[in-house]
């Protein structure tokens, strides 16, 4: 792109692509785990295919479910992803809509391990890279409490991070004059600082 960075999008397991039923359905009862594992495996393969890519400055970003995956990637695959940006994310699966969670994860009491391991907060103590998190305090989809519980977990383990709360913004973080420009400027500057552009 114009910043001198390589931008790649990977279709992990569970993605709606024409790769068959098993590819789509295998994530049942383990939301958040296989997708992040696939992203990390793909990144490692890309490093071997394109040696000019600087693996020491690899980052990932995502919004909503993608934000949850970004957290999993930086917490559980810190050897691959050195920086992450997570926006409007689910930190604990018990704090998201039960109509979604129970459809794809089963009931919490029947899938205790899946809910625990699939929640990024469980792995927050493993953070060793650069993390920026953003959330609207009026999020009508992924409640702001997800940000608060994650903040407290990172603080508990003295994990340093950057955080931006957007007052009274919903899940789209689009309300208010200048909001979108502020948000995109903030995360672009963060990427510039931590994922230095240019080949190695």
Characterize the structure shown.
By secondary structure, the chain is of the alpha/beta class. The protein is 38% helix and 11% strand. The protein contains 7 helices and 4 strands; from the N terminus they run ααβαβααβαβα. It has a 4-stranded parallel β-sheet with strand order 1-2-3-4, with helices on both faces. α2 crosses α3. It is globular and about 50 Å long. It starts with 20 loop residues before the first helix and ends in a 6-residue tail after the last helix. The mean pLDDT is 92.
| Structural class by secondary-structure content | alpha/beta
Radius of gyration: 17 Å
Main sheet: strand order: 1-2-3-4
Which spans of ≥5 residues are poorly predicted at pLDDT below 50?
A: none
**Strand residue content:** 5-15%
Specify the overall morphology. Answer: globular
Number of H- or I-type helical stretches = 7
The profile of the biggest β sheet is: 4 strands, parallel
Overview in brief:
Helix content is 38%, strand content 11%.
Which tags fit this structure?
alpha/beta; four-stranded parallel beta sheet; 4 strands; single chain; 200 residues; 7 helices
């Amino acid at each position: 792109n114009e910043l001198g960075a390589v931008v790649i999008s990977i279709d992990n397991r569970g993605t709606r692509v024409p790769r068959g039923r098993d590819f789509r359905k295998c994530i049942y009862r383990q939301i958040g785990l296989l997708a992040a594992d696939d992203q990390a495996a793909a990144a490692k393969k890309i490093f071997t295919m394109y040696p000019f890519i600087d693996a020491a400055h690899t980052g990932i970003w995502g919004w909503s479910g993608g934000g949850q995956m970004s957290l999993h990637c930086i917490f559980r695959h810190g050897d691959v992803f050195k920086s992450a940006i997570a926006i409007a994310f689910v930190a604990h699966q018990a704090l998201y809509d039960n109509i979604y969670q129970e459809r794809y994860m089963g009931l919490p009491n029947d899938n205790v391990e899946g809910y625990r391991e699939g929640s990024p907060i469980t792995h927050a103590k493993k953070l060793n890279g650069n993390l920026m998190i953003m959330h609207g305090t009026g999020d009508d989809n992924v409640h702001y409490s997800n940000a608060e519980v994650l903040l407290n977990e990172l603080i508990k383990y003295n994990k340093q991070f950057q955080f931006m709360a957007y007052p009274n913004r919903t899940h789209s973080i689009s309300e208010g004059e200048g909001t979108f420009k502020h948000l995109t400027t903030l995360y672009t500057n963060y990427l510039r600082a931590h994922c230095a552009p240019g080949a190695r």
